[in-house]
Amino acid sequence: MPTQITLLVLIRCWIRLRIVGDDKPGLEHNYTSHEATSSDGKEPGPTGLHKWALISSGVRLGFLMAGLTLIGLVAWAVRPGDTSDGDESAIAAGESDEESSSNGNDDESQTTPSIQSELAEPSTSEAASDDDDTDASTNPAAPPTTGDDADSLDEPPTEQERGRLVINGTGDTNLDPNYIPAFNSSGYEHAFSGLQDLFIKDDLTIVNFECSASDIGAPVPKTFTFNCDIDALPVMKASGVEVANLANNHGADWGPEALLDSKKNVAAAGIAPVGVGANADEAHEPSIFEINGWKVAVIGFGGVVPAASWLATDTNPGMADGDTIPTMVAAVEAADEVADLVIVTIHWGVELDTLPRPEDIARAEAMIDAGADAIFGHHPHRLQPMDFYKDRPIAWSLGNFVWPRLSDAGATSAIAQVIVEPDGSIDACMVPVFIESHGHPVVQVDHTGPCQWPGKE
Question: Can you tell me the mean pLDDT for 98-123?
Answer without folding.
Answer: 37
